[in-house]
Design goal:
The protein has 397 residues and is of the alpha/beta class. Helix content is 19%, strand content 41%.
Length: 397
């Protein structure tokens, strides 16, 4: 009897063991398949992410190469940079990129590849110049009585005029009685407008702190003009070609006339006596003047850098760090731009500006009007201190 029961139990246990083994085998196979698929998905995702990073690396390299190309004068649209199958350091990915000129816009297309994954991104490069503000300074900005700052050459899409400082210190932007900023006033990153701005006049736009400081880069003289021999002191006469001078020293009523596209590197000071003028000739087609200034600029009463074309794009002063003072005296008018990161710029009574000033500090005296040309926000590739920035980024696949 006991033997019969034992045989029955043994007959049941064997099938149960087999069923259990089959179930465990199925579960194990499923888990193994799940693990393999998860691993494959992980590899694919990793490849996708790495390919996207490689595409972004190609985009970054394209921007770097385009900004490096800006330093090669003259600019040549016929040889835009490109690269193919460049290995991304520390990975098995690579990138390629091309830059094309699409109706005046530079389009970057960059592709990253990793394994079977491929990602392509594209963006438009736009030029970013230093003159996107009417007045911008590292430290103080003071507008005395009856000074008005406005802008012209505007349309419905024109951004508000901007006057700003990198400073967050007390009363670094001061508007005295009846001074007017027809636009925005901005202070340094993290600053409080009510603390930094002493407003006894009128600000029609917003008052706010920047999200980050604006870097005022140092000016570098182009090697071609820097290598020229100095012609000494320029005292008067017509200038038809670019040149290097130790100074410009014009006595009362003396003039220098610029005819054509001229660049001057003045290693020392520019001194203009009463009623003296540096004239950008309005009757000679294509006349323009770019001055790289190593010393200071001091002008007497009624003297001027007289841009007869009345186009601020045609006259620019780029001051090296060794320039610490630019002083425009009474009744002078200047159509142009001044970039002087280490200079104190002073406009005296009734001296007028049509353009933009970027400097260490800026001060106007009574009734000195400032008129910002809004077209200065659109620089050219041939302008100094411009660089490319990304707009309209998109992933194509």
């Amino acid at each position: 009897m006991h033997k019969l029961l034992y045989n029955k139990k043994s007959g049941i246990a064997l099938p149960l063991a087999m069923v259990t083994i089959m179930i465990l085998l199925a579960v194990g196979t499923s888990l193994l398949t799940l693990g393999v698929n998860a691993r494959l998905y992980s590899i694919n995702d990793s490849h996708d992410i790495t390919a996207r990073c490689a595409a972004d690396a190609g985009l970054t390299k394209a921007i770097y190469d385009m900004n490096a190309k800006l330093k090669n004068i003259p600019w040549d649209d016929g040889s835009l940079p490109s690269e193919s199958n460049i290995s991304l350091v520390g990975s098995n990915a690579s990138y390629s990129y091309t830059v094309t000129n699409d109706g005046g816009h530079y389009v970057v297309t960059a592709t990253g590849t990793c394994g079977n994954a491929q990602t392509t991104v594209s963006c438009i490069l736009s030029l970013d110049g230093p003159f996107d503000a009417a007045i911008f300074c590292e430290s103080y900005v003071w507008f005395h009585n009856n000074c008005t700052i406005d802008q012209y050459n505007t349309d419905s899409d024109t951004l508000p005029l901007k006057v700003g400082t990198n400073s967050t210190k007390h009363w670094q932007m001061c508007l005295f009685n009846d001074a007017i900023i027809n636009g925005d006033a901005v202070v340094g990153a993290g600053g409080e407008p009510d603390y930094t701005i002493d407003n006894k006049g009128t600000i029609t736009g917003q008052q706010y702190a920047m999200s980050s400081a604006q870097t005022l880069e140092s000016v570098t003289v182009p090697p071609l003009i820097d290598s020229l021999p100095s012609q000494g002191t320029l005292e008067e006469g017509d200038v038809l070609v670019s040149g290097k001078y130790e100074s410009i020293d014009l006595g009362n009523n003396k003039t220098v006339t610029i005819k054509g596209d001229v660049t001057l590197y003045v290693t020392g000071d520019i001194i203009l006596g009463n009623s003296a003028q540096i004239i950008v000739d309005g009757d000679t087609p294509g006349s323009s003047l770019t001055i790289y200034l190593g010393g200071n600029l001091v002008s007497g009463n009624s003297s001027a850098v007289n841009n007869e074309t009345q186009d601020p794009h045609n006259t620019s002063i780029y001051a090296l760090d060794s320039c610490t003072k630019i002083n425009m005296k009474n009744d002078s008018a200047f159509y142009g731009t001044i970039y002087a990161p280490e200079a104190e710029v002073v406009y005296n009574n009734s001296a007028a500006l049509y353009g933009s000033v970027i400097s260490k500090s800026f001060e106007t005296k009574n009734a000195a009007p400032m008129h910002y040309d809004a077209s200065l926000r659109e620089p050219a590739v041939t302008d100094p201190l411009v660089k490319f920035k990304v707009t309209n980024w998109m992933e194509i696949n």
